[in-house]
Model the fold of this input.
Amino acid sequence: MFNYTIRRLIFTIPTLLFISFVIFFILDTAPNDPTGNLPLTIPPEVREKIRISLGLDKPMFFRYLLWCQQFFVNEPLNMIEQWFNITIGDGDRLRVQSWATRSPVVDLVVERMPQTLWVVGMSYVVGIIIAIPIGVISAYKQYSWFDQIGTFISMLGFSVPTFFTGLLMIVIFSVNLHWFPSIYDTTHKVTDWGSFVFQVKQMIMPVMVLAFFNAAQLSRFMRASMLDNLQQDYVRTARAKGLKERVVVLTHVLRNSLIPVVTVIALGVPQVFGGAIITEQIFKVNGLGQLLIIGIQGADIPLVQTLTFIFAVLIVLFNLIADILYGLLDPRIRYD
Done:
């Protein structure tokens, strides 16, 4: 397992480099102009000077190599200096800067990351906690009233878009019932019990909107996988040996059923970060999704490139995590 993990990590280096080049090439050739949002009264020569100051007069491949140096070398060195309070070299190195704010992109990502983790990360965890028991019980009690209701709710949650669910919850729980705030206050800090209660209240609606969507998909996968394993010969053998039904279902069937579900869960993490863009816009969550929207609207290419590449890194990383979990869940799988 260890050797396999090392080989996969080494293989991901050229993969990520190729992905970064494709992202850089597509965004660079897109019809985006960083001066497009400037007033029309600005003379063309001034616009050209702005483009030169942003380095757009240099060839694309040169700018890509410069971005690679800034992102893969300068930014890690800068993080090491901040974490350990040391200075490496002269400490003055170029960083990936946003065209709109002229501040380092990584600092913007680090600033917005906690809000995304609080809302999006919590919603994914809640969705998994809800989906797995529902999928297990629905499969074990196939065609029962619980299975029928669970199937209906799952189809409803998977079919209805999150922007409709979010607006519906705002109308019901914020406008009519006044239970929860409709706008997420990103400046709020938890200092006492009252502020903690307010933090929980403002998290409930965006978290539940995303958790409902995620749980609807995962519960269907869990149910289908459980139904497939409940018909296997090893289940009948385990029951014939006199094992308790709870041991058969939770130890043998559930463990094997989680193998394909783990793939969906692992590969769904980056999609959740990307798919939460709409939900963050609805509830005004100042997270990575809203940051990406701002970068796209303002033609802030370095910001969009960096965020898109971070999502790609998450996909490759969680794909590796899913493969490693295969070996832990299924003893028949051996990588070494």
